[in-house]
Amino acid sequence: MPSAAALREPACAVDVRARWLWTAQGLGLAVLGALALGVGLPLLGPAWLPTWSVVPLLGLGVTLAVVGAGLRYRWHRYEVTPEAVYVQTGWWTREQRLAPLARVQTVDRHETALGRALGLTSLTLTTASAAGPLRIDGLRREVAAALARDVLERAGRGGDGTDQHEHQQRPPHPQQQDHPDPEPGSPLR
User: Fold this and answer.
1) Measuring CA to CA, how many Å separate 16 from each of 25, 116, 118, 131?
2) Would you say 127 and 133 are in contact if contact means Cβ atoms under 8 Å apart?
3) pTM of the prediction?
4) Which pLDDT value is given to residue 72?
């Protein structure tokens, strides 16, 4: 009988390229904010506040983007066990979530344009929970595809990771590509 799942720090970090993605997104917001202030300040700002005061604010935004991306990478973790999915997010406020596999209803993939360029994607696991879905950002496409298959397969078995009935192996669809088994040390356990 599987042990009861408890909240804990998940074992798997997201792909290291997620730092670049999150840094670029933060820098984009910092530049847009500086542009908005640079245009709006002369028109709507107080007369005593010079337009060049946008420069230190831009510096602060760039610093937050770089530091924030590194901290987000450090704390954004996930893990799939035979019983549950664990997700930890946040660097300013940290959140740990656990979803029993039996409660997973759908798995969705989301890619931004920049994420596609870096080969990264996000998975959203919708559960029968009032707390909302679990989201794992910054996954390599191959890892996300294997993770989605594994979660759906385990969830379809009642979430305990064991076959309780004899199942016949269906032949693969002719257009389906063969995917290798996860390597030792991969996030799939």
Assistant:
1) 15, 15, 11, 28
2) yes
3) 0.71
4) 93
